[in-house]
Amino acid sequence: MASKDKNLELLEKREEVSKGGGIEALKKQEEMGKMVARQRIITLLDNDSFHEYDLFAEHEARDFDMDKKTLHGDGVITGTGTINGKPVCIYAQDFTVAGGSLGLMHARKIVKIMDHALKMRIPIIGINDSGGARVQEGVNSLAGYGEIFYRNTISSGYIPQISVILGPCAGGAVYSPALTDFVFVVDKISKMFITGPEVIKTVLGEEISMEDLGGARVNCEISGNAHFFATSEQECFQQIFRLMSFIPWNNTRRPLPYPAKKPKPEFEIGKIIPNDPKLPYDVRDVIKAIVDASDFFEIQELWAKNIVIGFGRLNGETIGFVANQPKVLAGVLDVDSSDKAARFIRFCDAFNIPIVTLVDIPGYLPGVDQEHAGVIRHGAKVLYAFSEATVPKITVILRKAYGGGYIAMNSIHLHADFVFAWPNAEIAVMGPEGAANIIFKKEILSAPNPEEMRKQKIQEYKDKFANPYVAAARGYIDSVVHPEETRNFLIHAIDVSINKTENRPQKKHGIPPF
Amino acid sequence: MEEQYTSFFIDDTEYITLLTEKFKRRKKWVSIDKQKVISYIPGTIDKIYVKPNQKVKQGEKLLILEAMKMKNTIIAPCDGKIKYINVQIGDKIPKNELLIVLE
What we know:
The complex is a heterodimer of chains A (about 525) and B (about 100). Chain A folds into 3 domains: about 1-245, 2-enoyl-CoA Hydratase, Chain A, domain 1 (Alpha-Beta Complex), CATH 3.90.226; about 270-430 and about 465-495, 2-enoyl-CoA Hydratase, Chain A, domain 1, CATH 3.90.226.10; about 430-465, no CATH class. By secondary structure, chain A is an alpha/beta fold. Helix content of chain A is about 40%, strand content about 15%. Chain A starts with a helix and ends in an 18-residue tail after the last helix. Helix content of chain B is about 5%, strand content about 50%. The longest helix of chain B has 4 residues, at about 20-25. Chain B is elongated. Classes of the chains: A alpha/beta (about 525), B mainly beta (about 100). The interface of A and B includes residues 222, 305 and 432 of A.
């Protein structure tokens, strides 16, 4: 029977193409400690949910003997599937096929699945493992990258975009991940840089290894290009699975609610923060004392640690947390922490995730390097992002809130919906020491015992201003709350904000201080 | 690795906190000495236009530093007299190398 033969032929063809770059190449990939592309997709997605498209795509390159080469699937696997039941579009570059190099057909497959994600309004996940542009295909390869970057930009804020770096991702190729919302890397496997060690050596005479230049750790700790660090691909996939549970399908939906759970009793909210504003503590313990099941999913944990961002749930609903971290650099805002917070705030706003801001900030980081690195324009991003956001915005001032830092951390002046403060909070232009030194300069200097006078004036200032009631008297704080009441106040605030609408003047788009 | 809490001042207030690696490794600011001409890129000395004790005006050509296939003209940052020339034609020099001292 002819049709039976045809059916058999299909299965044979599939099997042939599924070998990617061949048994040898697949073995080599495994020897490098890397999973092969199709296996990665299957591991990440729900069992049996992956459906592959464009399996039989072939390149049309004719130059440099390319017409004699067959590149299975043209080095990329594309399809759809589900993660915990939620649909996603996905692609994975296959390093075993011509080093996962990006040619015209390879790019067309990616672009096609990206267009699909955009049309279906579901998240797109890209697994990058590629030597870069397919040089034999010349400008067609560059065109391919450009089309991908364009779609990354158009999709931004419309559907969640996730990049997973599981191999090299260098040169222009890095700009697709850079345009997406979350970048996942794995130790010793991921490599990301614009110009490699060779070029740097020739041009600048600086010698550096690939790992030290753009390894997973470097991109998580120093450059901040990546958001999640894992020690294995398995761990990386678990992180993606967890992230997906907190975010919605697209910008018209809310994240799916989970059953509400109480925080774990070992996180005692009243016992975390020392009264003395100069002593450190880990603000993540405060978040864990507030969120459901004390389950906090931190983002960019290793970079700009002086601010903490991430997702948790309140009464089952996803919340984005932004919190100063007094444990690191006293919780100041600086160039990196401003970038980190601002981008996260914009993600939350785009995808209907309410923002809870926990404030304990001494101000901005002083220093020539900060000023010259543009802490003014970077710091402005935080003001812009909070002011622009129309999702429910709730602030809790835990302890100190000084100066520009107070304004920037979602103050009522940037139109926070609710601002709560703990009884120990102090809202002021600066700490009592600095303030007393300025206000009482004359008295202190002319006193017979200046040190004694200084202490006395600092105490005087503390007694009068180091409390939340001065701000509360002016309506800058909606309520002074007992730490134990915080969770209930937050849950209620989120509940009453469910229909929040805020109109903005009509415009094409704002001009954030990028 | 044990975490090292240190004292850290902001607006006269002392805080006890951890410092980040990036903060610890930040470059300390040093003011620019205009009388020292330093290479901003590694390369080869192609030409030298001046001699010791020669008076130069701000903007005058001092030498050509060839780097990345470009002949970069290095000019005098201020008026002065050539005190010392630290390089010779044909020298391959790294970045931040002292080229010429003015006085």
